[in-house]
Amino acid sequence: MSNLFTPEKETEQGKEPWQMTREEFVDKRIEELRDSKMYGNSPQSYKQRLLKESTTKAKKEWYSLTEKAYIDGKPLPLESRPDWALTAKEIIAIRDGLPDETPTREEMKEHSVVVRSALSEGKPVPELVIIGITEGERE
């Protein structure tokens, strides 16, 4: 099966993948799949499997591309940044739409694991995120 997901491919409206929301990126990839000959000639049961697998693959690809863009210093919107580049409070605000919500101890612990992993991989975790983890551990 050929690779349907090539990051270099020009996207609709001239947007780079990191300039799209995850949903826009996934929708674009699914549209490309549906326009392919392979998809058009496949039985319905295989089409369903292809759609599911392609959606999962596109989400992973978007995350990888936006993470690389963040590391490269591209101006990503807050909701497109990797979790390790956000404070736990920012994640809750994006995920739940609750900007004033305080993270639970469990949410802080989960976020700490993600941030520490990113640090061990040499990723450029923002100072504010590191300070948030350190303060959260003291509480």
Q: Top keywords for this entry?
A:
single chain; 139 residues; elongated; mainly alpha; disordered N terminus
Rg over CA atoms, rounded to whole Å, is 18 Å
Q: What order do the helices and strands follow?
A: HHHHHH
Major β-sheet profile: none
Question: β content, as a range?
Answer: under 5%
**So what's the overall shape?**
elongated
Mean pLDDT, to the nearest integer, reads 86
- Termini separation comes to 52 Å
Classification by helices and strands: mainly alpha
Number of helical stretches of at least 4 residues: 6
**Regions with pLDDT < 50 over 5+ consecutive residues?**
1-11
- What's the total number of strands? 0
Overall tally of domains: 2
Helix content: 55-70%
Task: Note down, in words, how this protein is organized.
By secondary structure, this protein is mainly alpha-helical. It folds into two domains: about 10-75; about 80-139, no CATH class. It is built from six helices and no strands.
Per-chain topology:
Layout lengths: L21 H14 L1 H4 L3 H28 L16 H9 L8 H16 L6 H12 L1
Helix pairs in contact: 1-3, 5-6
Can you describe this structure in just a few lines?
This protein is an all-alpha fold and 139 residues long. The chain folds into 2 domains: 10-77; 82-139, no CATH class. The protein has 6 helices and no strands.
